[in-house]
Each structure stands twice: as structure tokens, then as C-alpha cells.
Amino acid sequence: MSTRESELKPMDAEQLRECGHKTVDFIADYYKTIENFPVLSQVEPGYLHKLLPDSAPTHPESLQHVFDDIQDKILPGITHWQSPNYFAYYPSNSSIAGFMGEMLSAGLNIVGFSWIASPAATELETIILDWLGKMLKLPEDFLSVGQGGGVIQGTASEAVLVVLLAARDKFLRKVGKNSLGKLVVYASDQTHSALQKACQIGGIHPENCRLLRTDSSTNYALSPNVLTEAISRDIANGLIPFFLCGTVGTTSSTAVDPLIALGKIAKSYGIWFHVDAAYAGSACICPEYRQYIDGVEEADSFNLNAHKWFLTNFDCSALWIKDRNALIQALSTNPEFLKNKASQANLVVDYKDWQIPLGRRFRSLKLWMVLRLYGLENLQSYIRNHINLAKHFERLVTQDPRFEIVAPRVFSLVCFRLLPASKNEALANKLNHDLLNDVNSTGKAFMSHTVLSGKYILRLAVGAPLTEERHVNAAWSVLQEKASALLGTL
């Protein structure tokens, strides 16, 4: 290694070129060999403490030495989310376009809190979220031409938090700031736990967070009747209903809440209606899946994670809102050191007022590159391919009488379980728990679980960029093999 490189400067264009090439080569080689790694990391807790020194080096080390350590010590502790054999949780997509956008963003390294801090960062974000909003056929109220607009948050958890705060403050301005203890939030018991965290942060009393029961009769979607009863009861008890969260594609089973009916209820009571389509929203760029967000026109805010199923590297969560002033009133500060002509004259958007932190990365670059380098038709094909692979897996499961499908497959998640010979539910739960552990410990596939109506269920979510039919077939073979072994021990 040259002495020039061993004395790495904080920034030098030629060193950057040399090291950058080596880094890209390392990542490209990783993708070429990604199938060779166990998908779920097989290390024990604390493994890395034994492998690394207990203090930082005094003198610089070589880049090659660092890469060797990444290969030997870090990669064994990685669960490979981009592996074609990754079927757990929901996917978190990477792509060449997303990676290049991330690299450009890291290279420019701006902190775009206000328009003046980097005008292009703000303006590109506004334009790109209008593009994506149009691809989803969102109502014009959500686009930047009117009172609304889009903003990129880090995750859906941040999105639900900022809209909950906006709704809270809007209501408190109306009913008085001492009424915080009376505000009530509604959602189904399938709603992402981020809503509960948002309530904790927003000062909503835990006993006023209504997670309404769902069951198989509605395929685990929120029942409008159950919601109406809860709201009526709360109003009769002197409480103030203020926020409803509907989900398109719940975490457990991709249940779709009936947005049209929920929207009407929210409207009739003047409640803020937020729609969380973090995972499934991406599918709605396909005309045949757009129906799942019918009713979004009644919503006050809508969110999807482009980093889940839209080829955009983590993190990039798109949030649209109908009344941007509600966000700004809840989250804006105006310190002297940030004052400038464009902001004072109200000529520009300052996204610092639409989010929790002040600082923000140039995330719209990633989304812009994904939209331009793939285009709508390719993105639609990408989504359809994963859904077809999930349909294929569902067919495999239904052909084996030892298994059952537990909830309807709507997108690319299949919920299923292994059945014991007896009707013993406790035994069935233990059996599926053991089956999941046995499959994941092979390293050949990685799946996760959920519990629905007291049943322990396996989830196979198709959605990694490299997954093909052979990977789905291989996962099914491992499942069948481990199931036979388990049933043999009963």
C-alpha cells in the first residue's frame, strides 16, 4: 500500500477516488457472494467484544486492514437483509440506483434544514414527492400546489409521531391546553407499535390509546362499528376523540383497514385521520392494487416507506399531509441564527418545521435516482414479480395437507402454520415456534413470526431485490424437511 494512502487525509479528491473504488468493489463482491452467508447471523451476544481491541488506535491503520476486519469480524455478525433468502419482517430494499443516490448524498454531505441551507435539497424533495404522489394517484390536496405537500421522514414511526403532534396541537388550540388528559387516539390492535410510542412522546395518557380488537371475521381489519361504539362511549364520558390511524398492510398479516368507512367516521366527528401504508403503499403504484388506498381522499395524512419495497436504500419514509400549516405550527422554531430573507418573506419551504430534528440529509436524491433510472413500468413489474412469487409459495403451502394458510394473502406476505395431528393449540404453537427456530438456524432462509387470535404463525414475506422462484422453492424445501423431522418426534 502506498504511503500516500496510509496517511489518509480528511478530504483529498484523488485519495477519495482510490478508496472509493475499493469500497465499491468490496460492496459489489459482497453482493456476488451474498448467498453464501447464513441469512440470519449465527453469532452469540457479545461476540464482537472478544474480537476487537478495547480502545481506538493511536496511529492510522491501512484501509486493507479495515476491510479484512469487516470481512472476518463484521460480516459474520450481519443478518443479510438483501439476501435472496431473506423472508422475515418486511423487506428493506437496496438497489444500484438507491445506493448511488445514497453515495451522492454522502459525498455532498449537506445539512438541509432550511431552503437557504441548500435550495436544491428542499426543492427536489418537494418535486419528487409530488411525482410519487401522482404515481399513487393521491388527491391533489396532498401535493405541493395547494395547502399540503410531501416530506421525507426517516421512518414511519417518525411520520406517525409528527402528524400525531400536529393533530394534538390543532385540537388543544380549539379546546384549551389543559385538555390534554382528555384526548383519545384510535387504531386497531394490529396497528404498528410506533403509534403507542408516539402517544407516549406526545403526552397522550396510555389509558386513552384505544387499540380496538380485531379478529378473523374481518381478516384482522378494524371494524367501523367497533370504532363508532368506542368513539360514542368516549364522548359520553366527556373525552375528546382526536386521532385515528388506519393501516393498509398491517405488520402481522397485511390486513387492510376499510379506509372509506373509517374516513367517513373520522370526518363526521372531526377527527384527524392518518393512513399508514408503510409496507403496502408501494404496491399501489400498480393500477390493480390502487383500490387498497381508496378512501385516502378522506385522510389528513398518508405515509409509505420507500425504503421497504421501492428499491430505495434505508432510510426514506414519504409522508404527505393536506394542511402543512398544522405540522409547521406544532414543530416550528425560529431562532435568530436561522433567520434569512427567503424564510422571513414566506417564499420557501423549510423542512426543519415538518420534522422532529433540525438537521436533515439529502434523501430525495435517492428517490429521484430510483424513479429516473427504473421508471414507473419497471417498478410496477418489480412489485408484481414479488407478489407472484408469494402466490407461488402460497400454492406450495396449500398442496401440503400438514400446513394451513392462516390469513388471506393480499400482497407478498404469506401467513401459514404447521398443524399437529391433534387439535391441541398449545402444542401447535410450540410446534411452529420450534419449526421457525429450526429453519432459521440452518442459515438457508430467514423468516419471522406473529401471533393472531392466540395462534403462533410463520410469516414468509417476499421482497428482496435478488429473490427468484428457486429461492422460494428452497425455503419451502427447508420448511418441509424440518417439519417432517419435528412431526417425527411427536
UniProtKB/TrEMBL annotation:
The modification N6-(pyridoxal phosphate)lysine is found at residue 308. Its cofactor is pyridoxal 5'-phosphate. It holds the Pfam family Pyridoxal_deC. The keyword Lyase applies. The keyword Chaperone does not apply. GO terms for biological process: amino acid metabolic process; carboxylic acid metabolic process. InterPro entries: Aromatic_deC (IPR010977), PyrdxlP-dep_de-COase (IPR002129), PyrdxlP-dep_Trfase (IPR015424), PyrdxlP-dep_Trfase_major (IPR015421), PyrdxlP-dep_Trfase_small (IPR015422), Pyridoxal-P_BS (IPR021115). SUPFAM superfamilies: PLP-dependent transferases. One of its GO terms (molecular function) is carboxy-lyase activity. Keywords: Decarboxylase, Lyase, Pyridoxal phosphate. Coiled coil: none annotated. CDD domains: DOPA_deC_like. One of its GO terms (cellular component) is cytoplasm. Belongs to the group II decarboxylase family. This is Aromatic-L-amino-acid decarboxylase. It comes from Trema orientale.
